[in-house]
Write a structure and sequence with these properties.
2% of the residues lie in helices and 48% in strands. The protein is mostly beta strands. The radius of gyration is 20 Å and the shape is globular.
Length: 400
Amino acid sequence: MRRLIMILFSAMLLLIGSTQGARAQGTQFSDLGHYPGGTWAELWGVNQAGVLVGTGDIPSGYARPIGVPLFGAKAREWFDLGTLGGDRTDSVMCMAIADTGMIVGHAAIPDNETIHAFVWTAATGKVDLGTLNDIGYPGYTYSLAWGTNKSGTLIVGWSANGLDSDNLINGTAADALPVVWTPKVTWDSGQWKKTWQIHKLDTRGFRQFQYWAAMVPNDSGQIIGVATAPDGTLVGVLWNPVQGGKEWEIQKLPAAQGYSSVWPSDINNEGEIAGDVLNGNGFPYSWTDEFPAYWKPSDRSGSHFKVTILPTLGGYLSGLGDAEGINDVGDIVGGSTDANGNYYASAWRTRDLDDVPTLLSSPTHSGSWSWANRVNNYGLAVGSYGNDDVQENAAAWKLR
């Protein structure tokens, strides 16, 4: 379900305004709407300060990397980061925000076709992060920034040689390679300046794998990602930092018994991973089943894992589901189907992995659906919801 939505179109907190009665005890819902004059929005990132970022359209109909703070003088006032000079109705997004306030994402350059990764700070504004073409990979002229860690010291994503919306993720290319951007600080004109350097991540041992994506790093420098094997199955990978964090070594994440594919979505500072286990082929989307899963490190090196399939709202191995975000205190969020086949935002706890997830409330009209994508350490989850009356609105949930 999450994959289809992506293709078709991504102090203790107080109750956020516009709250309705919750359908699940202990959670509170807030409808954040969309950018003024727009028609849809979805949230992909949240930091500890309660600043939410994502994507949506503006009155012109073009997509923009947008966001909204929940606290302070500009609480609930949407902002538009603009693009890198071009306009598109898709593939223009804020993907993640660090606790420093740094935002990463991707946007169109002046040709309106090519997508480049960007980093934004209040001091610098948007900065084009460049592509692998810049360092000797001819043709890899596209790039997407998908994640950053809480401390804002790493940016990850991929660089590609074209766009094909029928491939791995909306905006992924005909071929893509995983990349990391690392900061470089230099003294220039009497002041320190930070620039970002692009590097291709290690793919040794994965011959003929395609459609690489580096998804999320943590503050220890671990990075999760995914690639497509020659037989079409999805392989989840983990890059562990070596040589003092200057290089990364790749390893394959284990799949659950009986499942052929793995899609990791988020990693926390404990090295725990949330994602999905699946059966079927990557292209087209011919999954026979898809379930949320949790990977817990089983040794101090963070190289071995125990994988657990999580129940859906309908029960264990019932329907389908996605685990999208995990924080450092044991909350996992995503979405799953209930006994009637409805897909709703869901939340699990790592200490109660066998329990049916908490249903996160949203307006219940005909055609209702909802999806949670990320959660911060205060239990603020963000995502989106829709129904027959609402195309797609940004949503937030307070878990406790």
